[in-house]
Amino acid sequence: MRRKRTYSQYKQGVYTPVGNKYKGSKRPVYRSSWELKFFRWCDATDSILEWTSESVVVPYTSPLTGRTARYIVDNTVKILEGGVVVKYLIEIKPKKQTQKPKSHGNKKNSTVLYENVTYIKNQAKWAAAEKWCKSRGYKFQILTEDHLFNQ
Questions:
Q1: Nearest to residue 33, comparing CAs of 150, 127, 151, 149?
Q2: Rounded-to-integer distance, Cα 83 and Cα 78, Å
Q3: Is 90 inside a domain boundary?
Q4: pLDDT tens-digit profile of 88-145?
Q5: Is 115 one of the catalytic residues?
Q6: How many distinct structural domains can be found in the chain?
Q7: Mean pLDDT of all residues in 5-30
Q8: Which residue among the candidates 21, 78, 93, 139 is catalytic per the annotation?
Q9: 78 in a domain, yes or no?
Q10: Is 66 helix (H, G, I), strand (E, B) or coil?
Q11: pLDDT tens per residue across span 24-71
Q12: Which residue, 4, 61, 15, is CA-closest to 38?
């Protein structure tokens, strides 16, 4: 069962970067208000030296099909931290999708299945991203609503 992903229910659009920190080859597209908030934060934060959107593709093996698939990571950033430049791959996700789903008696079977498939797929993507980062001197960071809205 494959659930078609639609973004019409989320705030989306093309972002116009401010200044010259954005280093992507095309204008960044935000697929949620969370991504828009992150783009604005990157432009407004002095310690961010540069950033991109959807510029890194990490191959991973899909645990659902066993085939190689492409994971397009949300963002990259170069940040000046304590006088050192640190490179990050950034994924923006709801906290709920970073935790193993709980099966509750009141959930529909289709909801439980969708949540479990999403979790399993995300775990495979993130493991591949960690490996990619380790081989290239990056750090992998998942940002949730806790990071984006509790500051």
A1: 149
A2: 12
A3: yes
A4: 999 999 998 898 888 777 878 888 888 899 999 999 999 999 999 999 999 999 999 9
A5: no
A6: 1
A7: 84
A8: 93
A9: yes
A10: coil
A11: 989 999 999 999 999 999 999 999 999 999 999 999 999 999 999 999
A12: 15
Kindly tell me if the per-residue pLDDT of 6 is higher than 70: no
Beta-bridge mates of residue 124 = none
Q: Residues 26, 131: contact at Cβ < 8 Å?
A: no
Residue 89 forms part of a structural domain: yes
Sign of CA dihedral 104, 148, 137, 30: positive
Residue 12 has pLDDT above 70, yes or no: yes
Here the tokens at position 100 are 């193993």
pLDDT of residue 151: 59
Q: Which domain holds residue 114?
A: 53-149
d(CA 18, CA 4): 33
State which amino acid sits at residue 146. D
Classify residue 110: in a domain, yes or no: yes
C-beta of residue 12 within 8 angstroms of C-beta of residue 32: yes
**74 catalytic per annotation:** yes
